[in-house]
Specification:
By secondary structure, this protein is of the alpha/beta class. Helices cover 28% and strands 34% of the residues. Strands 3-2-1-4-5-11-10 form a seven-stranded mixed sheet, with helices on both faces. A four-stranded antiparallel sheet has the order 6-7-8-9. It is globular and about 45 Å long. 32% of the residues are buried.
Length: 204
Amino acid sequence: YYVDLAREADGPIVELMVGSGRVAIEVVRATGKPLLGIDSSPAMLAVARRRSAGLPLELRLGDVLDLELDEPAALVYVPYRSLLHLRGWNEKRRVFERVAASLRPGGRFAFNAFAFSHRVAAQLDGQTTERDGIVTTLRYAPADNRVDIERDDGALIRLWWATKSEWEGLIDVAGLEVEALYGWFDRRPLEDDSPELVFVTRKT
């Protein structure tokens, strides 16, 4: 999905919260286009650098809350629900406004996030699972729009979800407009029971 968006971009491409580069590397390999990846974790960027050796992928340490680009981008995207690492409306709004300021006219901002389901939350709340030797427990805090992922080694990841109308509000206040909203990465229409919100927005 993000490879296709990158193919359509007619200028600089930026991935925010690039992490280990698992999406950025595939975008660069598939399109041959250079890409700038930004992340606040030196450890994750080190992994990305090892994986992307020889590819036109520039990796930069930076906080998306203070995003500034050297030149306006044609495409900025955030995969893997990474915007949920931003706490609440205020942090998300700041990033949306920084992204809008970093896009060229007509430039796109694309991202995806899960569509919150109280049924899924009720099923998973308190559930402990093991994957690749890592034991995690999920705990939901609906009053804070938050899900905590607690690891058995004491590490804690917190995600703050947003509703469809909240995402649309963030898009609006940033001066962007919704170009498309899908219910999955195959671009199927969004329906009431869609598990994912897949947005493509554009700078007017």
